């Protein structure tokens, strides 16, 4: 199964040294992708194209695999399926091209297009006329139409070899992965971060993944699965890392110590500080985020300025001027929308009245109320996983937790909502004790409760309570359930 790969147009206009380097990177990426997806490949790089042979046969399975994977390799603008053979005369070319194109000409106009490379005793136009004449004479048709033909017969000639093009496919475009440096994507599992990660990969960046865990294992597992999906589909030519940062302690201090109007900004500033440290550890030159101007209160220009000011490395925002619906549409196109739609939504640090243009001095004053060792502590507890190990990691059985809408006689309700929510709308359940324990303290404080009682974890949406319950189950606690009245 043979293919001709056309380069991304921006590669074609580069200087000779740059172009040669990009072609070399793309060639190696093709070998790596083939190795990762278990198919044989041969690659011959040329100045204006790359010739690829996939597999040892022309079976439908080989073709489907090759077309699928080649369409997902950054750096390829388009690629052609071809029949390759040696020729001496135009009759030899027609003998191969005739059975492929001839039956489709009945009742249609056609044109022959020849691209020629090398020295030949004929021009491309002469080859088109001779081969076109054979088609016109030997297959029923409505004649030649050079302007707007119903069928275009594509043939390429390279020295003594001819390539009859049987199909054309669109590539991913962009630059080869690894050609534009390394970056660290702050991925949350939502629509935005998945699309921004894809866009960074499309522009040739080798992207690792950074996840801030603020609520338990369920969210982390979902984000791991999405990250693996993006890598496996679009960037498997390079080995990268998935890093998890436990962020409960930081979230807890933001909620307990800082003004509600700037909590979202402080949270992002802490992420940037930690992200910068992890990026340095992984030799990444930039952080990638899915932020878009004005989408939420922390993404006003003023607040983005406050956020960027604490980062030690470049912050890139591929979606900075995108509309939300365009982002959602892009997520559907690249295949990540399903993850975003089913991802547990974390909403622990949201203010009722966020400040969209706070003064830098006020943000810094509120931030100073937190412990100074938070960043160092979070970085020290980072868990680094090779991206290829995620399937094994996520295939571990998730702990099942009982969910009820009515309580047993002696059940104690454990309200795991954020303190602000619990204060504004105190939970009262007739006939049952209610204990308030914020979600970010559940993991560390649950063991101090009376282990002879059964606890029904509660939150407004049932997401945070389920996350915490699963984590407690994994730690060996069984006197619990999730309460969804």
From TrEMBL:
Which superkingdom does the taxonomy of this entry point to? Bacteria
Where is this protein localized, as stated in its record? Answer: Cytoplasm
Please give one Pfam family short name: ThiI_fer
Disulfide bonds, which pairs?
347-459
Molecular function (Gene Ontology), one example: CCA tRNA nucleotidyltransferase activity
Keywords, in A-Z order:
ATP-binding, Cytoplasm, Disulfide bond, Nucleotide-binding, Redox-active center, RNA-binding, Thiamine biosynthesis, Transferase, tRNA-binding
**Catalytic residues?**
459
Instruction: Identify the EC number(s).
Output: 2.8.1.4
Q: Where is the Rhodanese domain?
A: 407-483
Coiled-coil stretches noted in the UniProt entry, renumbered to this chain: none
Q: Which residues bind ATP?
A: 186-187, 268, 290, 299
Q: Name one GO biological process term.
A: thiamine biosynthetic process
Q: What pathway is this protein said to act in by its record?
A: Cofactor biosynthesis; thiamine diphosphate biosynthesis
Q: Which residues form the THUMP domain?
A: 64-168
Q: What is its main location?
A: cytoplasm
Reactions catalysed: [ThiS sulfur-carrier protein]-C-terminal Gly-Gly-AMP + S-sulfanyl-L-cysteinyl-[cysteine desulfurase] + AH2 = [ThiS sulfur-carrier protein]-C-terminal-Gly-aminoethanethioate + L-cysteinyl-[cysteine desulfurase] + A + AMP + 2 H(+); [ThiI sulfur-carrier protein]-S-sulfanyl-L-cysteine + a uridine in tRNA + 2 reduced [2Fe-2S]-[ferredoxin] + ATP + H(+) = [ThiI sulfur-carrier protein]-L-cysteine + a 4-thiouridine in tRNA + 2 oxidized [2Fe-2S]-[ferredoxin] + AMP + diphosphate
SUPFAM superfamilies per the UniProt record, alphabetical: Adenine nucleotide alpha hydrolases-like, Rhodanese/Cell cycle control phosphatase, THUMP domain-like
- What are its GO cellular component terms? cytosol
Q: Which family does it belong to?
A: Belongs to the ThiI family.
Function, as annotated, reads: Catalyzes the ATP-dependent transfer of a sulfur to tRNA to produce 4-thiouridine in position 8 of tRNAs, which functions as a near-UV photosensor. Also catalyzes the transfer of sulfur to the sulfur carrier protein ThiS, forming ThiS-thiocarboxylate. This is a step in the synthesis of thiazole, in the thiamine biosynthesis pathway. The sulfur is donated as persulfide by IscS.
Q: What is the protein named?
A: tRNA sulfurtransferase
Q: What organism does this protein naturally occur in? A: Candidatus Anaerobiospirillum pullistercoris
Q: Source taxonomy lineage?
A: Bacteria, Pseudomonadati, Pseudomonadota, Gammaproteobacteria, Aeromonadales
């Amino acid at each position: 199964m043979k293919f001709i790969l056309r380069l991304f147009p921006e590669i074609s206009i580069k200087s000779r040294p740059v172009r040669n380097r990009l072609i070399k990177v793309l060639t190696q990426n093709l070998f790596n992708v083939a190795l990762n997806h278990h198919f044989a490949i041969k690659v011959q790089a040329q100045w204006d194209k790359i010739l690829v042979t996939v597999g040892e046969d022309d079976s439908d399975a080989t073709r489907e695999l090759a077309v699928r994977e080649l369409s997902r390799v950054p750096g390829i603008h388009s690629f052609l399926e071809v029949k390759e053979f040696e020729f001496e005369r135009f009759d030899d070319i027609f003998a191969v091209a005739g059975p492929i194109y001839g039956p489709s000409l009945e009742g249609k106009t056609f044109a022959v297009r020849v691209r020629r490379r090398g020295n030949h005793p004929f021009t491309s136009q002469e080859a088109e006329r001779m081969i076109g004449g054979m088609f016109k004479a030997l297959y029923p048709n409505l004649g030649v139409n050079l302007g707007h033909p119903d069928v275009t017969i594509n043939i390429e000639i390279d020295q003594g070899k001819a390539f009859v093009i049987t199909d054309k496919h669109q590539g991913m475009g962009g630059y080869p992965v690894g050609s534009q440096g390394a970056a660290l994507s702050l991925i949350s599992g939502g629509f935005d971060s998945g699309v921004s990660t894809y866009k960074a990969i499309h522009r040739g960046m080798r992207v690792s993944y950074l996840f801030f865990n603020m609520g338990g294992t369920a969210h982390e597992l979902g984000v791991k699965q999405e990250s693996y999906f993006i890598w496996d589909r679009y960037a498997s030519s390079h080995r990268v890392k998935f890093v998890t940062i436990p962020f409960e302690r930081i979230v807890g201090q933001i909620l307990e110590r800082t003004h509600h109007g700037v909590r979202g900004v402080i949270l992002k500033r802490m992420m940037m500080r930690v992200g910068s440290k992890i990026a340095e550890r992984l030799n990444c030159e930039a952080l990638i985020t899915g932020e878009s101007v004005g989408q939420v209160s922390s993404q006003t220009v003023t607040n983005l300025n406050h956020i960027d000011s604490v980062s030690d490395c470049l912050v890139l925002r591929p979606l900075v001027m995108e509309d939300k619906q365009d982002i959602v549409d892009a997520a559907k196109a690249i295949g990540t929308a399903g993850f975003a739609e089913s991802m547990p939504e974390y909403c622990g640090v949201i203010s009722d009245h966020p400040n969209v243009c706070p003064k830098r001095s006020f943000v810094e004053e509120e931030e100073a109320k937190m412990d100074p060792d938070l960043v160092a502590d979070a970085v020290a507890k980072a868990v680094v996983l090779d991206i290829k190990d995620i399937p094994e990691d996520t295939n571990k059985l998730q702990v099942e937790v009982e969910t009820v809408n009515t309580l047993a006689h002696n059940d104690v309700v454990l309200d795991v909502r954020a303190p602000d929510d619990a204060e504004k709308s105190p939970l009262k359940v007739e006939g049952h004790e209610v204990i308030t324990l914020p979600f970010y303290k559940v993991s560390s404080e649950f063991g101090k409760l009376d282990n002879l009682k059964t606890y029904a974890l509660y939150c407004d949406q049932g997401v945070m309570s389920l996350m915490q319950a699963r984590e407690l189950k994994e730690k060996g606690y069984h006197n619990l359930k999730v309460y969804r009245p």
